[in-house]
From TrEMBL:
UniProt KW keywords: Membrane, Transmembrane, Transmembrane helix
TM region positions: 6-27, 34-51, 57-73, 80-100, 175-199, 205-228, 249-270, 276-296, 317-336, 356-387, 399-419, 439-456
Protein species of origin: Bacillus timonensis
Name the record gives this protein: Citrate transporter-like domain-containing protein
Domain of life: Bacteria
């Protein structure tokens, strides 16, 4: 279907709405909030035809149910715009993420990490933990781009092995390393959504998230080391590895890690000192941090070129998330004004004595729905009615942890998810095969998340 030329400039409209939303966080004007609601309706109307089929179904379902619940409460129609702005802050954060991606690319950190992956490895068992860690570090800043970069490098590195071995290695090492980064990264939207849904501080969650990420990485690395050590590299490949400038790459990686630690520190410090929400702090900090970083590396020109084009492209393609988040706002707000929450509060009280069952089932729901193409953000929306009363029964930190671990597990086993689909396309294998191969890892994440969350009750 041919698109109208104006579609290429949607990023200007979206950017205006997101800027106005950020300004209004500080002004807190009801008038501007209402205007934002009207603009949200326009965004929804413009974005809906451009969204994918799955997100049209999800958005349409949330709108239909939310609309029904709204009219059931007997409220006036003029109230609707004010109900659609609750998730604009999440959309604003999504729009800013490409700038962080761009600084990593302009500084060529992705290339150096990939070179570091190959140094002094004689078999796939030694390469496995390094590949997983490399993808992990890249994903902390690059998100989905990290997976495609890792796939390309591993396909080249493992060209001497059979397709079956190569695909198995990529399916496990890259997908699991990628998902573990999303467990704690302040740039991961599911971390932001879980914090948004439970009201827990990021700094409270961070130590536990890092603990789970490190534990899962070590256990998975042991598996990879044992399982793949029988596959040896050819002598010619070892010769090429010895030619890599280890000192130069090590220095570059140290800069990268320092920048990552500094960004996390600033997010925590600014959020506490100025009393800003986690989502707003990350949103505001991304661009100035990236720009100053580019100046220090003397990469300002490449940062602007890569960043501007990357930002325009990504912002111009936000239709799926705009449809989902705005429709989810109507659903969530309307749900809160009905007696439905009280109806599910009662059955929950019967199982409140078995919180470990509740925590485990929340994670199972994430993975189960992901196998039918349901995005974890949509799953949070579906679980909204359950999550709210649970916050009065269980520790909100525990709820946030299982929401995050449950959503992260979906990235490795979501048959129709974007990451599994990209991996299937890149490796030429069935997405169902990828799902089956990573189910043990997903179950391990459920168990780990449930145990840590139960410990904190």
């Amino acid at each position: 279907m041919k698109q109208h030329p104006l579609v290429r400039y949607l990023y200007l409209f979206y950017a205006f709405v997101f800027l106005l939303q950020t300004i209004n966080v500080f002004i807190d004007s009801e008038t501007i909030n209402y205007i934002l609601g009207v603009l949200s309706i326009i965004m929804l109307i413009v974005s809906f035809p451009l969204a994918s089929g799955l997100f049209k179904i999800l958005g349409g379902t949330f709108l239909a149910i939310g609309g029904y619940l709204f009219f059931a409460t007997g409220q006036s129609l003029h109230v609707i715009p004010s109900l659609l702005t609750s998730n604009l802050s999440l959309l604003t954060l999504l729009a800013m993420l490409p700038w962080m991606n761009s600084i990593v690319r302009s500084g060529r950190f992705d290339r150096n990490l990939n070179l570091l992956m190959k140094v002094n490895v004689s078999d796939l068992g030694k390469l496995y933990p390094r590949s997983s860690l490399t993808t992990h570090i890249l994903a902390a800043f690059l998100n989905l781009s990290a997976a495609t970069i890792s796939h390309d490098v591993l396909k080249s590195t493992l060209s001497s092995f059979s397709k079956e071995i190569r695909n198995s290695f990529i399916t496990t090492a890259s997908l699991r390393g990628y998902s573990l980064a999303l467990l704690w990264s302040p740039l991961e939207i599911m971390v932001a959504v879980s914090i948004f849904a439970t009201g827990v501080d990021y700094v409270t969650l961070l130590p536990w998230l890092i603990l789970m990420a490190v534990t899962a990485y070590l256990l998975d690395s042991i598996f990879g080391r044992i399982y793949y050590k029988k596959y040896k590299f050819e002598q010619s490949s070892l010769t090429k590895q010895s030619m890599i400038d280890k000192k130069g790459i090590g220095k570059k990686m140290m800069q990268f890690i320092i920048a990552l630690v500094l960004f996390l520190t600033l997010v925590i410090m600014i959020g506490n000192l100025v009393d800003l929400s986690f989502i707003l702090t990350v949103t505001i900090l991304i661009f100035p941090f990236s720009f100053v970083w580019s100046l220090m590396m003397k990469r300002r020109r490449s940062f602007w070129i890569i960043g501007w084009n990357n930002w325009k492209e990504k912002t111009n393609m936000m239709q799926n998330f705009i449809v989902l988040f705005i429709s989810l706002s109507l659903f969530s707000t309307s749900l809160g004004d009905t007696a439905f929450l009280e109806a599910i509060q009662k059955p929950l009280s019967y199982v409140s004595e078995y919180p470990i069952v509740i925590l485990f089932l929340i994670q199972v729901i994430f993975v189960f729905l992901s196998m039918f193409g349901i995005h974890p953000i949509a799953t949070v929306g579906i679980l909204t009615g359950i999550i709210t009363p649970l916050l009065d029964i269980l520790n909100p930190v525990s709820i946030a942890l299982v929401l995050i671990t449950g959503s992260v597990a979906t990235f490795t086993v979501g048959t129709y998810g974007l990451l599994v689909t990209l991996t299937a396309m890149g490796t030429g294998q069935s997405p169902y095969r990828i799902t089956v191969q990573n189910i043990p890892f997903a179950i391990g994440m459920w168990v780990l998340g449930t145990l840590v969350a139960y410990f904190l009750l």
